[in-house]
Structures are given as C-alpha cells and as structure tokens.
Amino acid sequence: MNHFDLVNGVLHAEDVPLPTIADSVGTPVYVYSRATLERHAQVFRDALSGLDNPHLAFAVKANPNLAVLKVLARQGYGADVVSGGEMDRALAAGMAADDIVFSGVGKTAEEIVRALKAGIGQFNIESEEEGRELATLANTLNLPANAVLRINPDVDAGTHGKISTGKADNKFGVGIHRAPEIYGRLDALPSLNMRGVALHIGSQLTSLEPLETAFGKIGTLVQDLRANGHRITHVDLGGGLGVRYKDGDNPPEPADYGAMVARVTRGWDVRLMFEPGRVIAGNAGILLTRVIRVKPGAGNLPFAIVDAAMNDLARPALYDAWHDFEAVEPNGQKMTANIVGPVCETGDTFAMARDIDVVAANDLAIFRTAGAYGATMASTYNSRGLVPEVLVDGGKFAIVAERIAPETILAAEHVPDWLK
Ligand code: LLP
Fold first, then answer.
1. Which domains are assigned to the chain?
2. Is 344 a catalytic site residue?
3. Which of 48, 203, 279, 377 to mutate to test the pocket of ligand 1 (most atoms within 8 A of CB)?
4. Per UniProt, where does pyridoxal 5'-phosphate bind (predicted)?
C-alpha cells in the first residue's frame, strides 16, 4: 500500500502531480511520501503489538535522508546505525541517543569513542576483538557501554547472495557455537554491560521460515547463556522483511511476522528489539525520471534511454533487482523495450525486454519501490550530479536533499602545485 497513484491519468505522489515536481526540481529525482512512511511505521508497530514494549530502530542505511528520519522519529522510532555518519543523522533528526543501536562489523575506535560520548543506547558487538576494544575505550572514558553480542546463526536466508548475512561464511557476528565462551569472556569485563544478543540474517526475505529457524536457535542460546549465569535482558532480532517489487512477489505480511515472533519468543522474558529498513521505506519512494530518447535495438526491441542511471539507482546493476517502470501519463498502450540509463557501461540497464507503457522522448516515468537503498547508494559515476530528494506531504512538497551539481563536485578537487 502506498500513495503513488494515477489521478485523472497522471501519476501523483499523494496530492501532488509528479510533473509539478519534475518541472520544479528537474529529473532524475527521488520522491518520498510522508503518508506512506507513516503508514508503514504504524503497520510494523501494530504487527508487534502482542509484544511487551518492543524497541523499534529504523535501519538508517535504507534511507538516511534527514527529513525521512524526522518523520520516523516523530513516529517514535529510534535508529540502527552502522557508522558515525549515520549516528549523526539520527541524532540530528531528534532521535534520543538512548534509542540508537550501533551495528556494523568494522566500527573504528574513533566511531566507538564518538558513540560513547553521545551516550548511544547499545553497541551490537560483532567480535570478541571489538568487544575488548569497546571495553577499553569505555573504561578510559569512564562512560557506560551497553552491549549485545551479534550471533551468526548459520542460517540461509534464501535471499540474494550479496545481501545474505547469517551464513557461517558471512563476515557478520560470531559463530553460534563459539558464542557462549566469547560471551562469557566479554561479560567478565567490568566496563562492558553485556545485556543480550543480536542477529540479522539478511535483507529482502520473502519467507518467514529462515527467520523462525534463526530465532529458535537464538532462544536456545539465551537459555544456555542464562544457565551459565549471564543476565540476558535484550534480544535484537534485526530487520530483513522483504517487500513487493513486482506482481507475483509475495513477501510475508508484517502481521504474520509479528505473530511468528510472538510465538517463537514466548517466555524469553527480554525486551525485543527490531531493525526494519526496507519494509518501512521501500514502497514509500519512487525515482522520477525523464525519457531522453528511444532508439531502435537489435531484434526490434527499442532502448528507452532515461535520464536516471545506475549511479542514481544501483540495485538493478548490483543485484539484478527489478523495479517496476511506469509512465507518469500513460496512454494505455504498451510496448516491449529495454530500459537503460546514459552511463557508459552495459551494467547501466534497468530492465531488458520489459513490457512497459509506451514512452517517447521527454515523457516522464517512474521506477517504483525506490525508497529503500535508492538515493543512499547513489554516486557521481560518469561525473553526473548527485540525485536530489523530495518529500511530499498531502498537497505540498519540499526538496529534502539538493541536487549536488557536477560543478560542485569538480570544485572540491584540486591539482597540486607541483602538477600545474
Ligand atoms: N540490521 C542490520 C544489521 C542490517 O545489516 C540491515 C541491512 C538491516 C538491519 C535492515 O535490513 P532490511 O530491514 O532493510 O532488510 N543494499 C541492499 C540491502 C542491504 C541490506 C544491508 N543490511 C539492497 O539494495 O537490497
């Protein structure tokens, strides 16, 4: 469910016709719907209403835009961050430091110190080495450090290999069989407040089964840790719920996820924590683009060349991801075409032999489900500008991230004197 619909033959974001945004901001541009973000935040929260005071931390990596974070902060969400930069954004959006969880396999000492000083709520430690470093830094600064140990449960999430994180050979967390001894050593460090465990097995999960298997393993581990005398008060179940990218996709409903979690975690007696990203932001954004021209291709399949490219939306090039493509003012006719961007490599292809609305030069079109892992993964490859972002709220809209022009990027580069 989202708020990008046809109204009188023209695609709108809530009450704003997309051509209005294109005229005002130019293309390509990401457009987010506040009502959709809020709805998803509410649906996810409702799905967990059977739990006692769950902690909701939006995975900032999915969409770190400051205004988007502000919308979610106002919905009572905290943040899951994986860098000092993401932490700064969450704090700038008004999220309480205590509601921020710091994940990530390569936190630097500098980032740990900054997070300790900011008073963030929890470190999700990914190795014994990291835990020891955190303990030393917390001791030196004499600051509290709440921490949980991220477990790698060795479960196949059944998702794309590049976004699977819970198999034994993935870099994340500590192997579940080694967890009790590592937890024991970390819990013995006086400056660490070890309070539980965390896991996250991957993203865009289209089945609840691997999650249930992983949660079951964590439940057993919690019992083992308690049997060893540890006080376990928090378990972070990560993110990962998939969303619908195309017709026929059938990701789990948040309500079914919530019911499964309630069933599997019954009696754990911990505060459960969640790190949803895509399920909140994915369908709340689109990438608005303009067709530059259509040129004939081999086998009678034309290339629709749009002004968005792999540097603006990397997912198709990186993961062969599907994003629905629709004309902003469809005339009811269809064609089969390849949709490509202007970047000079064949990987800059959004779709091959796709049945799409007929489009011609200068027509506007959208890629759907671009609100998560869209703008945040953009680059300036081919010396293109950095794509701007717009937030719509009912009948109004605002630029929430400006386009960074190629000239601005060029101005930040310097030729050393000895080369002039
Ligand atoms: N927690 C942790 C520790 C994570 O690593 C991630 C995502 C999340 C939560 C949020 O997962 P979500 O609920 O969004 O599935 N760029 C890729 C996705 C990478 C996901 C990385 N980790 C893509 O475009 O599909």
1. 4-31+282-411 (2.40.37.10), 104-274 (3.20.20.10)
2. yes
3. 203
4. 240, 275-278, 373
Coil vs helix vs strand at 150: strand
Q: Is 234 helix (H, G, I), strand (E, B) or coil?
A: strand
Residue 48 burial (10 A CB sphere; 0-12, 13-18, 19+): buried
- DSSP for 375-418 reads GGG---GGGPPBPPEEEEETTEEEEEE--B-HHHHHHT----GG
Query: Which tokens is 39 given?
Result: 């709805």
Threshold 0.95, pTM exceeds: yes
Q: Give all strands (DSSP E) within 68-163, no chain letters.
A: 78-81, 100-102, 122-125, 146-152
Place of tokens 């754990």: 268
Is this complex scored with an ipTM above 0.85?
yes
pLDDT at 130 over 90: yes
- For residues 252-275, average pLDDT: 98
Contact 2, 257 (CB under 8 A): no
pLDDT tens string 270-319 = 999 999 999 999 999 999 999 999 999 988 899 999 999 999 999 999 99
Residues 153-183 have pLDDT tens digits of 999 888 888 888 888 888 999 999 999 999 9
Phi-psi category of residue 94: left, alpha or beta, with phi > 0 → left and psi -120 to 50 → alpha: left
Structure tokens at 204: 């865009």
- Nearest-atom number in ligand 1 for the CA of 277 is 14
The protein residue with its alpha carbon nearest to ligand 1, atom 19, reads 163
